[in-house]
Amino acid sequence: MPEEVLKRAQHELLDWQGRGCSVMEISHRSDAYVALAQSAERKLRQLMNISDDYAVLFCHGSATHQFSMIPLNLLPETGKADYLNTGIWSDKAVKEAKRFGAVNEIKALVNQNGQFTVTEPASWNLTDNAAYFHYCPNETIGGVEFSDIPVRGRTLVADMSSCILSKPIDVNQFGLIYAGAQKNIGPAGMTITIIRKDLMGKARPQTPVLFDYQVLADNASMYNTPPTWAWYLADLVFDWLLEQGGVPAMAVHNAEKARKLYACIDGNPFYRNPIDPKFRSRMNVPFVLADESLNTKFLAESEQAGLLALAGHRSVGGMRASIYNAMPMAGVDALIAFMTDFAQRHG
Ligand SMILES: *Cc1c(COP(=O)(O)O)cnc(C)c1O
Questions:
Q1: Which of 83, 138, 140 to mutate to test the pocket of ligand 1 (most atoms within 8 A of CB)?
Q2: What's the pLDDT band for 279 if we cut at 50, 70, 90?
Q3: Per the structure, how many domains does the chain have?
Q4: Which residues bind pyridoxal 5'-phosphate (predicted)?
Q5: Which end of the chain has fewer CB atoms within 10 angstroms, the N or the C?
Q6: Are both 165 and 300 inside the same structural domain?
């Protein structure tokens, strides 16, 4: 979270808009809360240039909920969907979708001479008339990111949990975009879904009511009590993003942070990033030490230096620096200084 946002939330915690109470304590049906909710949506539409052809939903829960909601809403019982598998999150999406219908899984992550890369789209066996094509533009754990949309002319469904708002995208190329809030937006517990309106209203009859995008849209994401606190913080983050110069400014900043960190890794034989440079993530930078017996020491010393959460995901080990929008350049510079010093002392 941007520090300015946390400070503002702290300042407003007990007295929001001079009301003598917290935003957490007012009714989500009150005029004040509805105005906040609408303003958050307006700001997101502005930041991402989202047209009226799309609904913007502030859903309860997480990206993992969306793994189930997507097939229930978009995959007809007799239909088939294409799913690109490029890592742990897209693999989880595949596994969940298979519970609901026919899935053509395209395993596209390969190890080539010790480096992970993604196979050429021309080699993917896509389904004629697939209901949609699901992929994960940024695999958070593996650190694998697409620099561009991999296929066109299809109903694209994209899990943007860890890359939303990090660079400009053309929303019109997508059928559905979803992102759990906790990586690049706000606190956990809320997921933003941007869905082309013509894709709604076809949920299977047994779809739980809160999983039906049309129900959420018809009720302005307030069929039930929405995650009001997360929504409020998202609104503050959107303000912050607009003040920073919006998504284009974030993209420049993020590219520079990633460039510096990869240059540090590539320039020092003590460290290695295992991803084909064409698919390196700008948000999540995994790296391993040449001498893995130093991992514990690296993590302990980095934590002492105030550099937190550098352990790789429990499923892959190694290290991972997540440098989301809110990570300032100074944070990346501090990490690079630490890594250089650590390598000198132990190399
Ligand atoms: C974190 C993450 C998820 C899972 O998020 P939950 O909120 O734990 O369900 C899914 N996809 C991507 C790309 C992620 O980064």
A1: 140
A2: very high
A3: 2
A4: 63-64, 89, 140, 159, 182, 224-225
A5: C
A6: no
Closest CA to 151 of 163, 133, 136, 137: 133
* Alpha helices (runs of H) in 59-128, residue ranges in sequence order: 63-74, 88-98
Domain that holds residue 329: 246-346
CATH of the domain at 250: 3.90.1150.10
Residues 275 and 202 in one domain: no
pLDDT at residue 314, rounded to an integer = 82
Q: Quote the strand ranges of 156-253, DSSP E.
A: 156-159, 176-180, 190-196
61 and 172 assigned to the same domain:
yes
The amino acid sitting at 195 is: I
> Contact, 340 vs 268, CB < 8 A?
yes
Q: CA torsion angle for 130, 170, 168, 149 (degrees, to 10)?
A: 30
Tell me, what amino acid is at 283?
A: M
For residue 275 the two structure tokens come to: 């991803």
CATH number, domain containing residue 139: 3.40.640.10
Q: Count the Cβ atoms, other than its own, within 10 Å of residue 79.
A: 15
Locus of tokens 């949309």: 149
pTM for this model (two decimals): 0.97
Among 244, 264, 299, residue at a domain's last position: 244
Please say if the pLDDT value at position 104 is more than 90.
yes
182 labelled ligand-binding: yes
121 shares a domain with 72: yes
In the block, tokens 């890592």 appear at 87
